[in-house]
Amino acid sequence: MNSVKLYTTPYCPFCNMAKSLLKRSEIPFEDVNVSNPSERAKIREQSGWPTVPVIYIGDELVGGFDELQAAQRSGKLDELLGN
């Protein structure tokens, strides 16, 4: 199974929804807090993704919560996880 990594802030509702979706699906993930503006700028620069959460599965950028949810609904999430 490919690893899941989320770059989040604790006050972001979309971050919390992404974590809830993964928990409900029993998918383990690493949560990296990027509350510090310089950390958030760094991940934005590295990923090209403008907002949090920034979600990676393995080395692939999934996107944010909407993209994660769409991947789950379409069945692509299992494929990305390597299931």
Describe what this molecule looks like in 3D.
There is one protein chain. With 83 residues, the chain is α+β, with helices and mostly antiparallel strands. The protein has helices spanning 13-24, 37-47, 65-74, 76-81, and strands at residues 4-8, 30-33, 54-57, 60-63. The protein has a 4-stranded mixed β-sheet with strand order 2-1-3-4, with helices on both faces. Strand 1, helix 1 (13-24) and strand 2 form a beta-alpha-beta unit. Helix 1 runs parallel beside helix 3 (65-74). The protein is globular and about 35 Å long.
Topology, pairings included?
Layout: E1 4-8, H1 13-24, E2 30-33, H2 37-47, E3 54-57, E4 60-63, H3 65-74, H4 76-81
Parallel strand pairs: 1-2
Antiparallel strand pairs: 1-3, 3-4
Helix pairs in contact: 1-3
Write a brief structural summary.
By secondary structure, this protein is an alpha+beta fold. The chain contains four helices and four strands; from the N terminus they run βαβαββαα.
